[in-house]
């Protein structure tokens, strides 16, 4: 039986996981009477809620096509650049990839990001133009755009000679020509078998066992599971192995207790796996991502793909508010530290260091979304945390100058909102690179902007475009520091009392600004309960009730009708706060507060003139 290892890579929402559902169904993975779920590969709770792929996952299908029986190992990769650390490691396991591009939206920033990694590693991609049955699809134009992109990114002549196929992942068909029959995904399977080479390492079957770990997870029964492609030799339960770090130092010794191969959506134990196959190995407790697991006679480690450095960091500390420990059960700094270090072990794109001060840790990652996913996961596990405003990670240039990360930004927006978007981003020191119509009354804007100028802009952008705009961003490079930026324009309303909010008090405060809390909610001194309509911070009393009298008169008992409060998600709250503010995260609540709770010690906000 021949073997193929491929990755499916695409921008967010271009239909990658939906196509995976159809590939699994048409290859016979599911029984006729077996219940199936939509987006089967997105097994994580947050993936299903957010509608994006966060963790790279492997599956395997058997295809009986024109070349006979072939086992195809398929890796579903995240489409968002914040999770690019997953993609970079994965590409080292495969011999080919399918680039999925929406036939209407075309090439997006994350497509470029992943494609650049694939071309650099010498992979020859297959272009799949998805959603060609949409009303405004223009596959011919997108095909030309992709070819231009390949050329601009330095693709070789072989890589430029890429095959392409038209598909509709939702409807489960693929065709080599637009007017060809649209019955199944068989043409895509056959194209993968024809175009993607067999693993080159398959000829190393008689050499000592070696595998490079690229994914890590913990199983409650088997312990630590390390996934990778066997580079040489054979893996079998009971084989004595040791783990080597990148510099060749031995980390630990042990035996393989289980070899798990991917069969459909499940992992099944096998008696033996050969070079070229992608498997998960159990038996070691200290080895991690980028380590080499090998037979005892091997003394050199396999080279690992370098990972791009983090660009955003935030301080995570214990929750020290007056309401600490009332909603979560994991509140100690030791427990928080262990959880963060565990995450850094399995996710190479996250870096954890001790922050200045007690009980605080600096967590650096690729972007706000990646850090938001981590904090949300901890919140659901019962942790209580205090989170600072995200900051960019600066670097020092050759001449000692400070360098800051720059991002490529692509915006699709209705024509009428183009002016306000460009005006706002120009004020944030963004540079316009290109602008033109993208069809259906929309304009596509390409810019380069400092990462720090985009922190907190997403909410403002959605307001300016009435929720119709789409903003995509991806890290590009470092440039010299571009100077100070104007911060949030509005101040906040800060509670000066402890207790339950009173509807009467909030009703009287509505003239001051927008409320973040409703009536009857717990509040404390220093907690942010709303946004001030003016630029400065204002201490207010949200618990003062209506004074009662024994005289009834007309107009005394008018009904109190409150405007519904503005509720923020975790990402919105993290992006909203300023340097002197924190987000208090518990399993049940997300609150904003001042970092110094006592008003007498707090500095009033100073207005920054533009």
> Can you summarize the main beta sheet?
11 strands, mixed
Number of helices: 14
User: CATH topology of the largest domain, what is it called?
Assistant: Rossmann fold
What radius of gyration results from the CA coordinates? 27 Å
* Low-pLDDT stretches: 606-610
* Beta-strand segment tally: 36
| CATH homologous superfamily designation of the largest domain | P-loop containing nucleotide triphosphate hydrolases
CATH architecture of the largest domain: 3-Layer(aba) Sandwich
Through-space gap between termini: 67 Å
Explain what the structure shows.
21% of the residues lie in helices and 32% in strands. With 610 residues, the protein is of the alpha+beta class. It folds into five domains: 2-198, P-loop containing nucleotide triphosphate hydrolases (Rossmann fold, 3-Layer(aba) Sandwich), CATH 3.40.50.300; 202-295, Translation factors (Elongation Factor Tu (Ef-tu), domain 3); 312-394, Elongation Factor G (Translational Gtpase), domain 3 (Alpha-Beta Plaits, 2-Layer Sandwich); 396-480, 2-Layer Sandwich (Alpha-Beta Plaits); 492-601, Beta Barrel (OB fold (Dihydrolipoamide Acetyltransferase, E2P)). The strands form six sheets. Strands 19, 20, 21, 22, 23, 29, 31, 33, 34, 35 and 36 form an eleven-stranded mixed β-sheet that branches. The relative contact order is 0.09.
């Amino acid at each position: 039986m021949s073997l193929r290892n491929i990755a499916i890579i695409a921008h967010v929402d271009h239909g990658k996981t939906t196509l995976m559902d159809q590939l699994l169904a048409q290859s016979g993975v599911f029984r006729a009477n077996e219940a199936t779920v939509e987006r089967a590969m997105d097994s994580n709770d947050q993936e299903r809620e957010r509608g994006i792929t966060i963790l790279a996952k492997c599956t395997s299908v058997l295809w009986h096509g024109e070349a006979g029986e072939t086992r195809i190992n398929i890796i579903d990769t995240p489409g968002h650049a914040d999770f690019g650390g997953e993609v970079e490691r994965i590409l080292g396991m495969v011999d080919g990839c399918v680039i999925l591009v929406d036939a209407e939206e075309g090439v997006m920033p994350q497509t470029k990001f992943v494609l650049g990694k694939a071309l650099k590693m010498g992979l020859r991609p297959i272009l799949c133009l998805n959603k060609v049955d949409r009303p405004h699809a223009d596959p011919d134009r997108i095909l030309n755009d992709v070819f231009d992109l390949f050329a601009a990114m330095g693709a070789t002549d072989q890589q430029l000679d890429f095959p392409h196929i038209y598909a509709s992942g939702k409807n489960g068909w693929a065709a080599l020509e637009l007017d060809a029959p649209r019955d199944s995904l068989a043409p895509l399977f056959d194209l993968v078998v024809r175009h993607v080479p067999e693993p080159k390492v398959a000829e190393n079957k008689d050499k000592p066992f070696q595998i490079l770990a690229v994914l890590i997870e913990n199983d409650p029964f088997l312990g630590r599971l390390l996934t990778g492609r066997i580079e040489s030799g054979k893996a079998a339960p009971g084989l004595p192995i040791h783990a080597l770090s990148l510099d060749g130092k031995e980390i630990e010794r042990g035996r393989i207790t289980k070899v798990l191969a991917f069969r459909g959506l499940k992992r099944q134990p096998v008696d033996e796996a050969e070079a070229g196959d992608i498997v998960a190995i159990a038996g070691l407790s200290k080895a991690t991502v980028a380590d080499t697991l090998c037979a005892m006679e091997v003394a050199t480690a396999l080279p690992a793909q370098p990972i791009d450095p983090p660009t955003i960091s935030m301080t995570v500390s214990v929750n020290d508010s007056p309401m600490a420990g009332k909603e979560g059960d994991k509140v100690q700094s030791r427990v928080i530290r262990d959880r963060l270090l565990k995450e850094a072990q399995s996710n190479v794109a996250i870096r954890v260091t001790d922050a200045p001060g007690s009980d605080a840790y600096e967590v650096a990652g690729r972007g706000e979304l990646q850090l938001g996913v981590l904090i949300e996961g901890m919140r659901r596990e019962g942790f209580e945390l205090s989170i600072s405003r995200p900051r960019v990670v600066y670097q020092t240039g050759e001449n000692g100058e400070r360098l800051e990360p720059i991002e490529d930004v692509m915006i699709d927006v209705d024509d009428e909102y183009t002016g306000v978007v460009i005006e706002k981003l120009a004020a944030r020191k963004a540079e316009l690179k290109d602008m033109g119509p993208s069809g259906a009354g929309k304009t596509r804007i390409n810019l380069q902007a400092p990462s720090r100028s985009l922190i907190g802009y997403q909410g403002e952008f959605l307001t300016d475009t009435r929720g119709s705009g789409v903003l995509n961003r991806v890290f590009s490079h470092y440039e010299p520091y571009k100077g100070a930026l104007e911060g949030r324009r509005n101040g906040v309303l800060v509670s000066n009392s402890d207790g339950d909010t009173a509807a009467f008090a909030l009703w009287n405060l509505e003239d001051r600004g927008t409320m973040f809390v409703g009536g009857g909610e717990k509040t404390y001194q220093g907690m942010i309960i709303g946004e001030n309509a003016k630029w400065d911070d204002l201490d207010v009393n949200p618990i003062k009730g209506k004074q009662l009298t024994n005289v009834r008169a007309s107009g005394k008992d008018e009904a109190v009708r409150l405007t519904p409060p503005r509720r923020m998600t975790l990402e919105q709250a993290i992006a909203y706060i300023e340097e002197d503010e924190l987000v208090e995260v518990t399993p049940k609540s997300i609150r904003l507060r001042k970092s110094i709770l006592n008003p007498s010690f707090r500095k009033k906000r100073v207005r920054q003139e533009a």
